[in-house]
Amino acid sequence: MKIETITTTKFRYITNKVKDTDGHTHPGPERETQSALLTITTDDGSTGDIVTSYGDIEEQLIEKFVRPVLVGEDPLRIEKLWQALYKWQRGSSMKLTDRTLCAVELALWDLAGKASGQPVWKLLGGYRDKILAYGSTMCGDDLENGLATPEDYGRYAEWLVKTRGYKAVKLHTWMPPIPGAPNVRMDYAACAAVREAVGPDIPLMLDPNHWYSRADALWLCRKLEELDFYWIEEMMEEASLSSYQWLTARTPKLNILGPESMTGKHWTRAEWAAKGACDMLRTGVWDVGGIGPAMKTAHLAESFHMSCEVHGTGAGNLAVAAAIPNTSYYERGLLHPFLDYDKPSAYQNRIDDEMDQDGYVHCRNTPGLGHDYNLDYIEANRV
Ligand code: MG
After folding, report:
1. Confidence band (pLDDT; 50, 70, 90) for 225?
2. What's the 190 CA to ligand 1 centre distance in angstroms?
């Protein structure tokens, strides 16, 4: 089996989400948006695919970096192909990003699963076939009855737990350009309202503004210790490893989780574990360049007796979370009272991460990564 073609198909669909000036997603009026499908096809007709932003897989990137590495190669030698793409990154003038590596690698894993008739979560080790999800809210907003006040967060968290079945909840709180944000006292008020609403037994987590000072971060952590939060993540610029060592040493009753957006794949994460800059490691396929480096992060965390919490949604992250023993939850979101997360987009037959009423996301036994795209829709809505 040899890789023959690699194609990008840009397509349009309707969304009811908008991005604010700082890049945070909120509910909004219906509008047209675009995504793209990356498809890898072999000489025997096997295929693997993944949907992502067009910027991750635009034709110039595929032509310049990806086809020269992949075409004519055995698609099952994923580590060999990933290493070759990774080595290209330095000479690519920053054009070949970890997200492009991830998209290509996910399509290769999807192809490997389909060609072997196996789901990817099993090929990776298949530690479990279902995993509890935490409900991960959108950032705070200024929408009436949305996520504008601590009471809004409390009311929504209560619905997530008591009606929808989530067994854990993570808040993203207010960030600029929302008036008054960021503010650790506003963050604390939302966290306190959620703790009050869901009771003492539901694990809670916080992802606040990412640029607090050490002093603000420590104040917030001390308050979260009082509320018995499970973890806090990315409350300071992650490039300062020393600041995370400083904070982790001062918060014995709260887990510090990281790094999430810091570059450097599994190598950065090894430094954080070795230097005591966090209590729990963070990885995510789109952050570290694919399933391979995410699995390496998880294994190194296990070797330090640490958990590795998987960042972000989607079939790739679900496959990793199911494959490893040392993780607590799958991140499901982002969620908002005005949006129906369970409703598939027009290009999907099903969402990647259907959840039952007990809060479990079940892994699919269909071959491949587990996503279920409507390829006819994508073809009919080509841009
Ligand atoms: Mg985060």
Report:
1. very high
2. 17
Which burial class, exposed, middle or buried, applies to 144 when counting CB atoms under 10 A from its CB (0-12, 13-18, 19+)?
exposed
Model confidence band, residue 353 (pLDDT cutoffs 50, 70, 90): very high
CA 257 to ligand 1 centroid distance, Å: 9
- CA–centroid distance, 311 to ligand 1, in Å, is 7
Tokens representing residue 96 in the block: 């070949």
User: Which ranges of 28-97 does DSSP label H, i.e. alpha helix?
Assistant: 59-61, 67-70, 78-90
How close is the Cα of 94 to the center of ligand 1, in Å? Answer: 23
Distance 233 CA to ligand 1 centre (A): 6
Average pLDDT over residues 222-231: 98
CA of 290 to the centre of ligand 1 (A): 17
* Mean of pLDDT values over 196-201: 98
- Cβ-contact 104, 38 below 8 angstroms: yes
